[in-house]
Amino acid sequence: MSLISTLARLEAVDSGRAQPLATVRHRHLTDGPLVLVPLTTAGEAGAPLGALVGTDRAAPRLLAVAQPRDRDLRFAFLAELAEAVLPHIESYADVVEPAERSEVDPGTGKKVKVEVELCADAAQLIVPSRAGIDFVRLLGRSMRFRRTAEDDPDTPYPAPARVPLLGRWMTHYGERARVPGSSLLLAATDLLNRHWATGQSSLEDQHLGALLAWVDPPDGEPGAAAALRAELERDRDGQLVCPPAGPATDPAFDNRLLAPAIERYDRARAALAAAEDALDADTRLGELSGAEREIRSLLAGVLLPTWDAVWRGIDLLRELPEGTRAEDRWTRDRWSFTAHRDRVRAGEPPQPRRDDAVTAAQKLAARETAQAQLDAQEALDDPLVLAGRRLAGEAFIGEVTEVEMAYSESKRPSPRPLVTVRTDERPHLGERTKVYRSLDGRPQTAEFVGYATEDAGHAEPEGTVHLVLRITDRMGRSKEPAPGSVPEPGDRIAWTLFEHDQRGGPKLPDPEDTPWTHGGPPGAAGGGHAEQPDPVTAEDIL
Amino acid sequence: MLATALGSPAAFGQSQFAFVRGNAFEAKVKADGGTELLRLLVERLGGGAEAAAVAAVPDLTAAGPEGRAARTALALREATAAGSWTLLDHPMLALEVAGSPAYLEPDAVVVHPDGTWTVVEIKSFPMIDSSADAAKVGAAARQSAVYVLALERVAAMTEGAEVGHRVLLVCPKDFSNLPTASVVDVRKQRAVTSRQLTRLTRVEDIADALPEGTTFDPGCSAEELGTAVESVPAAYAPECLAACELAFHCRAKARAEGAVEALGRSVRGELGGLTTVAGVLAAAAGKEGDPADPTVAALRRAAALRAEALAGVDGGVPCH
Amino acid sequence: MTAVPDPGAAAARATDAILGDTLHGTARGIVVDSPPGAGKSTLVVRAALELAAAGRPLMVVAQTNAQVDDLVVRLAEKAPELPLGRLHSSDSDPYDKVLDGLDNVRKSAKAADLAGLDVVISTAAKWAHVKNVEPWGHAIVDEAYQMRSDALLAVAGLFERALFVGDPGQLDPFSIVGADQWAGLSYDPSASAVSTLLAHNPELPQHRLPVSWRLPASAAPLVSDAFYPYTPFRSGTDHGERRLSFGVPSDGSGPDRVLDEAAESGWGLLELPARHTPRTDPEAVRAVALVVRRLLDRGGAATSERGPEPVPVTAERVAVGTAHRDQAAAVRAALAELGVTGVAVDTANRLQGREFDVTVVLHPLSGRPDATAFHLETGRLCVLASRHRHACVVVCRAGVADLLDEHPSTEPVQLGVTVKFPDGWEANHAVLAHLSEHRVHWAP
């Protein structure tokens, strides 16, 4: 943890409430995010138990699985989830704007501009916590290889129609969430933790209730006390007042409330199956729906506090103005969303279980670029983030004291003005270290020349140094620099030692040209078939 | 774990759904004389296809942990001498720790015809597309390493026996309850545990270092452990919260003392000798501390930069 | 017949086998593990010259520009007539100016300009941008364990066969973002190039240089046991062949006593009183600087197998190693205050591949309240403990063994990932236990 955020945490301890880590919002929020609060069954991988989902905080849709081990009920849940999520996604898929993308022309090998569609906005999904993001990924994995009756009439236990499609979208969202700075799929805890430092550890910050207790403590109650209540307070029945944000449930809830309710449900179902006549069946059906209603109400009871907490978190974040460059990152998310839409429409198969060598390398490179981009953009958008970089010697603010015109030594001399900057900061500058400033939103480069000898006449405060920088670009093509392109004495300017934009890495070979060092082209061994569905057995738990 | 040893229930309890599932899975893996388990073992570790059908499963019941450990050692020796596949279901192993014997109960140990002994751990977390939660696999590896060390004590006295450093981890495959397995090389964990055992002298550390299911010599009572707890200096870290319900007690104590560790171990990293929240804030505010101390100097700079940014003094600096 | 064969003969046998496979073998790849100071650079230069002499066009891939320039200089020294190409980036100052003075070296940012030269050398990053060229018959990939798998993916199409050379014990490549989702995959892009190569081609011949010519007999066993437990190596020199002496006797101070201990035994631990400190612990930093100052003041002289006469240990034969950049900066400032110049002061990352007579190391865990994965990384300690030909002095606060005990290793384990190195926790304990036999307490 950087010293400046450690300090913020200590201030939070001292003041009893969370302290800002940002002055602007570094993640884009759409006008209508879809919130999903899922629950899972303990001990079963990817066996959903229930969920609240929706775009209207006042009207969440409750989905529940009365017996999580029952394949049909689970499929019914997933089908309902698909009906809650896919229309939201699809509502963004058809609103497009024209855009240009550069592609390599297969004929000439040259880069050419191609007119393409870009979705004007993208569907945003918000879950309570990181575990929720993992669960989205897990659900995506469990659904995308399923076969429907339409895919294959002979498939055993066919999945409902839209379930595999939901699996593909959830997989896409889960993968995109791994790209630093992306906002297609967000966790409320991550959002809050990015913008506020609490007086507890980052581990405790994963508890949405405790986190909110620090960020927005109720009625002046100290954050620590409010957080402790969120963590531990139980009602007379031994149930947590602030249930875990999921997808895991509290064991006390499972053992004392849910297990008996599921048992009643199972009994009612068995009784219904054994019903001897229509009248008997009617009564027993009533009992069955009663048992089901009870489970739904139990689940709603533990889901609603988290649902409200997620929306409260969103409210708090909306109070911060969005950082200028967050829009740029959201545009990348829109490209990602559009690209997946296009893959689905083109009838491409679901994402493979594991990436091939080239795809893995491409993703890693893209994420490293995105991370560097995010770090730079946040610092440029937010003086508080920049302060951290200044403390680390990776940026500095200084006042221009002198500008001396100079030129490059070439046949056509270009302007290379020397700018003296006064600062009391200690950036890690070495000979010819490059520094950058933002000029009309784009970077201008300079290089460190050396420390100026101080003017004898001036009495400088201790610790002040004079740095000489040589500006090397963005001054136009003529001999005289373009107006406004050279700093002037008196300007206070933030310089960074990190680049503002990131260059992409080299082009990797196409997957079918994967070299021998990496196992050769994928599928060469396996015959190049598309992924098979998971085998299903009669006793499959999921 | 220490809390369990003290007789208190585990921190967050266990859901009966998970409990039932875990037991059902282990039973399924070991069903039919361990046929499926041995098939997986041979598939992953080699050793011949004829293995599965003909494994012996000796009865290991005996009175008390000491008796069971002796019975296990005997079964291991017999199986090794016989040179045939043998599955030991829930054997009992003894390991001397700081002078007192601790008893350990692995899920299973398989004796190969060549005299190799392989530890088998059966866990209920899934292996999805051949990968699993790394933290859970790490915990399983450390646990298995203790079994390996305990087995090595027996093997040292058994002609022709060798303890494999590759253990078999068995988990449910993908989203099913079908077992799948992966080999985990525990040489690192074994080396670390071995060194820990030679260095650890305090009983409370030992309790922490040993896997769940360990039972101590009955001579070591809950009261004795309890006394040990009180004598331990508070070494609270937030990681404790996931493992021990005493952690909330320790956290309260750490917070009351203003200990910076309550905010996470990494927080201490840059604070040098400053250990309390008040001390750090006073140093940052310039009220205390030697400005020549690099920690104090860095804190003051951090505080000044933070205040400046929040006050918007430099908010107007053209970054856009 | 002797139990311990002559190290020179053992090393020569290994080298011959490697060159034999390289020139006459049929395998597409050959992997050579080289422990610290085992003659990796010499091997690379020799292999390059022999391939060139056999008329086989060769590309060489190194990881940093400094490594590339260093190789070019070494090759040019050995073969001043051999046409060499230095492919460089289009940034300003893309290569060392020394290269301008070498007549046989052509430099260009475009691979096409260098076509037809016997040997073309560049960084992996630059090679990755070379497209649409006829593949080279041979490649040498240097520091292959520090190269990431994805970097190899980007360049492997440029050559038919390759010799991969590197030190498996040094710092692993890393990624600034999480790459766990690919852990266990044979081609995990964040893993080292060698692990991917061998996962896909397990039949490739693997060689090992068995002798460290750098590390003295006092250091090789410790470094070998602690960091290469499954691939041991030995020192090329015997006890007594390397001697370090001082013209000026000890003044009885801590720094002098630890220098005497290190001169005598090859290792010295200057242990300061236990205290939690900031990273740039002023006392420890000053102690490091004082040890260096005294080493130079006392007229340190080194005698080795290279010649009968003692050679003065001058500033450029001494290095200071730290874990963090700010620590290196603080030591530089402290040395400047004591009037010492010319001593290399750097982090483990930047000292990789370099060699000195005496090193002074600020222990990565000195004064720390916690032991993080970064500080426990095996490669970091290995680099710091294996740069010296004569002696290594470690400066450290007392209490590190207890700190290690409080932070037992709880590393996550990814299924399918091959275990290569000892645990950082375990290796730290092993080194510490050895150092404690050469301990000098000192309260400055």
Quickly list its features.
heterotrimer, A: 542 residues, alpha+beta, Elongation Factor Tu (Ef-tu), domain 3, 6-stranded antiparallel β-sheet, 5-stranded mixed β-sheet, 12 helices, globular, C: 444 residues, alpha/beta, 8-stranded parallel β-sheet, 15 helices
Question: What can you tell me about this protein's structure?
Answer:
- The complex is a heterotrimer of chains A (542), B (320) and C (444).
- Chain A has 542 residues and is an alpha+beta fold.
- Chain A has helices spanning 3-15, 71-93, 130-144, 163-176, 188-195, 208-215, 223-232, 251-273, 278-318, 326-345, 357-381, 383-391; strands at residues 19-20, 34-40, 48-54, 61-64, 96-104, 111-119, 125-127, 185-187, 196-197, 395-404, 418-423, 434-439, 442-451, 465-471, 492-496.
- In chain A, strand 5 (96-104) and strand 6 form a beta hairpin.
- The longest helix of chain A is centred in the middle third of the chain and has 41 residues, at 278-318.
- By secondary structure, chain B is an alpha+beta fold.
- Chain B starts with a helix and ends in a 9-residue tail after the last helix.
- Chain C has 444 residues and is of the alpha/beta class.
- Helix content of chain C is 33%, strand content 21%.
- Chain C has an 8-stranded parallel beta sheet with strand order 4-3-5-2-6-7-1-8. Chain C has a 6-stranded parallel beta sheet with strand order 16-15-17-18-12-19.
- In chain C, strand 13 and strand 14 (307-312) form a beta hairpin.
- In chain C, helix 2 (40-53) crosses helix 3 (65-78), helix 5 (149-155) packs across helix 6 and helix 7 (220-227) runs antiparallel to helix 15 (424-435).
- The model of chain C has no long low-confidence stretch (mean pLDDT 93).
- The chains are: A alpha+beta (542), B alpha+beta (320), C alpha/beta (444).
- Chains A and B meet through helix 1, helix 3, helix 7, helix 8 and helix 12 of A and helix 2, helix 10 and helix 11 of B.
